[in-house]
Design goal:
alpha+beta; Diaminopimelate Epimerase, Chain A, domain 1; 2 domains; 18-stranded mixed beta sheet; 18 strands; 17% helix; globular
């Protein structure tokens, strides 16, 4: 089975082109290829699937084999791959995800014409507690309290196609993400688990983010998480409509005016191609 390794701001996945390849038992395959010692290494597996009504479909698996509805960094890479291999020169792409339709625009190309920067319409934030989902039957879950490891933290939740929990901290570099992240990921408040964003505000236009991603652990970036941070920041008045988010793997630009879609712009990079045996 041929594959491509790509990343968006360090959020790296193994991609398989199902226009040409086959991937039996993708949940098992995701666990095998994602292992950073015995596999290819990555935050998960993404299948690029043909559709008659779209440029492509993304099917995503976390490193533990669980499925996820949406990944912004992953979808930028899908857009790059489809553009470079099947729609060279096409600016606008229509893509299906587990969270529904998303639209991508190629906004930067290298000297060869290959895509290197992509803007995604990430869709409208979902604020209703039961739809995120959380156990809170409320129109929005903002600035609530959660107790973990003997600490009480303030959090806000939103869905950007998958569930997120945003927590503001004073010093994100020093915060014990590896200890607190998995406890919140599996907390009873979140029936389908949750991605957790730990955020340090530098200004209205700039924050630092670390993410504990359900099914994968701490990742170097999370596009849906960055979108959640932009949406929650606007809702709480902590940040403005145009936000640069510094992640471990690089920067993303988020735009959100308080209603409608969140727009995210960032890089998409092909690292290498290879062949995985036994599939």
């Amino acid at each position: 089975m041929k594959f491509v390794k790509m990343h968006g701001t360090g959020n790296d996945y193994v991609y398989v082109d199902l226009f040409r390849e086959k991937a039996a038992d993708p949940a098992k395959l995701a666990v095998e290829v994602s292992h950073r010692r015995f596999g290819i290494g990555g935050d998960g597996l993404i299948l690029i699937k043909p559709r008659s009504d779209a440029d492509a479909e993304m099917e995503m698996y976390n490193a533990d084999g669980s499925m996820s509805e949406m990944c912004g960094n992953g979808l930028r890479c899908v857009a790059k791959y489809v553009h470079d291999h099947y729609a060279r020169g096409k600016d606008d792409l229509k893509l299906m995800t587990g969270a529904g339709w998303r639209h991508a625009k190629i906004v930067g190309r290298d000297a060869s014409g290959a895509a290197e920067k992509v803007r995604l319409d990430m869709g409208d934030p979902v604020w209703a507690g039961l739809r995120i989902p959380t156990t809170f039957d409320l129109p929005e879950v903002l600035d609530r309290k959660i107790e973990v490891a003997g600490e009480t933290l303030s959090f806000s939740s939103v869905s950007m196609g998958n569930p997120h929990c945003v927590i503001y901290v004073d010093d994100v570099a020093a915060f014990p993400v590896e200890r607190i992240g998995p406890l919140i990921e599996t907390h009873p408040y979140f029936p389908r688990k949750v991605n957790v964003e730990f955020v340090q505000v530098l200004s209205k236009e700039e924050v630092i983010q670390r993410t504990w991603e359900r099914g994968s652990g701490e990742t170097w970036a999370c596009g849906t998480g960055a979108s959640a941070v932009a949406a929650v920041g606007m809702r709480l008045g902590r940040t403005g409509p145009r936000l640069t988010i510094h992640l471990t793997g690089g920067d993303l630009l988020l735009e959100y005016g308080g209603s409608g879609s969140v727009l995210m712009t960032g890089p998409a990079v092909e690292v290498f191609q290879g062949e995985w045996p036994g599939v």
